[in-house]
Design brief:
The chain is built from 14 helices and 16 strands. An eight-stranded mixed β-sheet has the order 4-11-10-9-8-5-6-7, with helices on both faces. A four-stranded antiparallel β-sheet has the order 12-13-16-15, covered by helices on one side. It is 36% helix and 13% strand. It is of the alpha/beta class and 509 residues long. The relative contact order is 0.11. Helix 1 (38-51) packs across helix 3. The protein has three domains: 1-119, Winged helix-like DNA-binding domain superfamily/Winged helix DNA-binding domain (Arc Repressor Mutant, subunit A, Orthogonal Bundle), CATH 1.10.10.10; 154-389, Type I PLP-dependent aspartate aminotransferase-like (Major domain) (Aspartate Aminotransferase, domain 2, 3-Layer(aba) Sandwich); 394-500, Alpha-Beta Complex (Aspartate Aminotransferase, domain 1), CATH 3.90.1150.10. InterPro entries: Aminotransferase_I/II_large, HTH_trans_reg/aminotransferase, PyrdxlP-dep_Trfase, PyrdxlP-dep_Trfase_major, Tscrpt_reg_HTH_GntR, WH-like_DNA-bd_sf, WH_DNA-bd_sf. Keywords: Aminotransferase, DNA-binding, Pyridoxal phosphate, Transcription, Transcription regulation, Transferase. Residues 36-104 form the HTH gntR-type domain.
Length: 509
Amino acid sequence: MVAPVKAPLPAEIRGPLPARTDELPFPLNLRREDAGALHAQLARQIREAVLSGLLPGGTPLPGTRTLARTLNVTRGVVEGAYAELLADGTAQAQVGRGTRVRDETPVPAPEAPAGATTVPAWLPDAPPLPVDRPGGRPGIDFRAGVTGTATLDRRAWRQAWADAAREDVSGDYGDPAGTPALRAALAAFAGRQRGLGAQAEDVLVTGGTLHALNLIVHALLPPGSRVLMENPGYRAARQVLLDAGHEVIPVAVDVDGLIVNPDTPPARLVYVTPSHQFPLGSRMCLPRRLELLDWAARHDALIVEDDYDGEFRYGAPPLPPLAALAAQTGAAGRVLYLGTLSKVLTPSVRTGFVVAAPPLHARLVRARTLLDFGPPTAVQSALTHLLTGGHVDRHIRRSRRWHAQVRAALTTSLDGLEGLAHLGGIEAGLHVCLHLHPSLPAPVVAAELATQGVHVSTLDSYTLGEAPNALLLGHGGLSAAQASAGGRVITQVVRSCATRAGLAPYSDA
């Protein structure tokens, strides 16, 4: 069908075009100054009359000459409108009967207030997101999961994007697994930083940890699979598993990480954060790691190792990733290693990676292709420049010193809480846990801190069941001065709460 040409109006006509109500039982209002073509305006108004029930099924429409003369427009305008109505099924045409509203007229929708949006009745309200809102709260915000960019080499950053912009622009989709250059750079990076012997063909570039986990649970797990999860654990990861229809079994953690013993139930998959357990901060000891690999072999299960901030260690010797241990013990296909550049550089790059054995990798690439055809090539090019130029490694060394100073300032400011609280998870990562005396409820302390402009989280939303009585202190986005100032307020508030609880006469609170 040839699209109708918009017909010009006579120069003397201004404003709404007149319509005679004896032709149609409602007024037509065509406006030459509107952006829409006249035939589209006419078709829309007739269609709305049909959908509202004003023109029932079978109602004849005026002839094109008659309606054109009534509206003082060319016949082509009416013919174009009728062509649209015939094409979308609003009208039908028969020889000898002319054009009329289709007999099977739709049932008019219930009248809704102007501007209202209707959705299917079966669609439930969206549940709340298990993540903190972007942006910090006024004051000192010990928000976990963020990192600062104070140590970022801005010159190298700008140069990497400039180099990426000078590259040729392809008219085709890229490799859904990621560009070969970035995959090779990430494999080498994981080898240098974490001792992981990965090859470029083992790497899949993702949009971050949660994106990787979504790919894994949809591509590798049968519907309704049982999955073991650290408790307390990463709440967003838990929700990804639940939203995908899988059964989440909480497993307790202690100072040595996920507790694995003969009573650990079988499952298809287990999700762990062995380098710096989230949120308690413990490191999974080597015997426990070997026990977990043995559990996976016995139950024919997969392990997702989320190494979200394993690059940041403070005096503690690095432990080999589960993926590296699995390769040494002949179980490399059991572990999917998740890395991210969000903590290393900035979350704004939205880039992470999965290291997986070929059979798993192929399934993940298929899922990535069907999801979005792969990551954007410009971002990959810039990150490749940063990785291959040594800028990321230098940035990590600077950041490690920076975060070590912040951590030291925070822990020093909390020294006066002996007997009332103790710190956990201080050997690595970008957050610590302040475990409180049982007589000092964490929600009460957190609420009082908020009134002082210091914002912390409790572990309630991270835990299925009774939560540990602790405060989560993320220091990745703070300076040493901010961490120290916030720590002093925490000390004062905890002492004040302790005095009211009758634990000690801290009159200096």
